[in-house]
Design brief:
Length: 313
């Protein structure tokens, strides 16, 4: 089942599997969430918002959709968490093996167990860059290892897991966590060099799993488990821009949009975030000068301005 004819309403000539460089897999799954339900409606809300988004990116001066984005059939397996993870695993691997840049949009965070498993099988020396409010390192939760609270436990055992924005966890997760590779939100708030510190830990091929509750609920209220003290828009873009331009990102997923009929800005933010990540990926491949003078970027200038204010006060 496809919820839209093409991603973002792009012309059919840019949406064919044979020629598209990007595959987008929707995964409308919400089988293990433990608070607010509705993440299964996330892909549809994301796609609807994408159709109302301008497709020229001002910052990168690009129209990345022209690289081709194929909207795959949604993964709708929901008979069990384990069956869903395996369906995501196999679907993701199928498109990686077609030499596509594979992306996914959930759904709750348990879908990432399947996507990470596929990327780890297909790419050597994989770093999983986990951007989230929650540690998600439980080995098992509520009777299954395929729970949203276990989203990156397997990655912690089998990949170079780097966690960013963490501000909520269970005490038991510290026994699994590599704290040299965990960037807690309260530390990031007082460390102007946190982006460079993260990049020091990110090596090899990189898969990004982006839980939208990593963002502050003032700009992203529509998630299943919002947490105060999150990332803001421009610092997030500055970070992602550096990751894409300085490392080899091989794919990503975005999860945990829990849409609210009365609040559409979150849907649109998710749509814009996805498009920004694609824009950074393909500009970094096509334009060698993109990161030549990063100190002149608007985001670096904004960071300098904020740091100057902090020093003044």
């Amino acid at each position: 089942m496809k919820t839209s004819k093409t991603y973002a309403g792009i012309p059919e000539k840019y949406a064919k599997l044979e020629t598209a460089k990007v595959v987008l897999i929707p995964v409308p799954y919400d089988g293990t969430s433990t608070w607010q339900k509705g993440a299964d409606k996330g892909p549809e809300a994301f796609l609807n918002a994408s159709e109302n988004m301008e497709l020229y990116d001002i910052e990168t001066k690009s129209e990345v959709y022209k690289e081709g984005v194929y909207l795959a059939d949604a993964v709708t397996e929901n008979s069990s968490p384990e069956a869903m993870v395996e369906a995501v695993h196999q679907t993701t691997k199928k498109y990686i093996n077609k030499n596509k840049f594979v992306t996914l949009f959930g759904g709750e965070h348990s879908i990432s167990i399947g996507s990470i498993r596929a990327f780890n099988e297909c790419f050597q020396n994989l770093t999983v860059l986990h951007i989230d409010a929650h540690a998600d390192l439980r080995k098992e939760y509520e009777g299954t290892k395929c729970n949203h609270a276990c989203a990156v436990y397997e990655a912690s055992q089998n990949t170079n897991l780097v966690q960013v924005g963490i501000r909520s966890m269970d005490a038991s997760e510290r026994t699994v966590m590599n704290e040299d590779k965990v960037f807690f939100a309260h530390d990031m708030a007082v460390n102007e060099d946190w982006i460079d510190d993260v990049l020091d830990q990110v090596t090899g091929n990189v898969f990004i799993t982006f839980d939208l509750d990593a963002l502050d609920p003032s700009i992203m209220p529509s998630t299943g488990t919002p947490e105060p003290g999150g990332l803001f828009w421009y610092e997030t873009l500055e970070f992602l821009r550096k990751v894409f331009t300085e490392r080899n990102v091989v794919g990503f997923d975005i999860v945990e949009l829990c849409p609210n009929e009365q609040e559409k800005s979150s849907d649109f933010l998710a749509a814009k975030l996805y498009y920004k990540m694609l824009s950074y990926k393909f500009l970094s491949e096509n334009d060698e000068d993109f990161d030549e003078d990063e100190d002149d970027s608007p985001f670096s200038q904004l960071s300098k301005f904020k740091n100057d204010l902090d020093e003044d006060y």
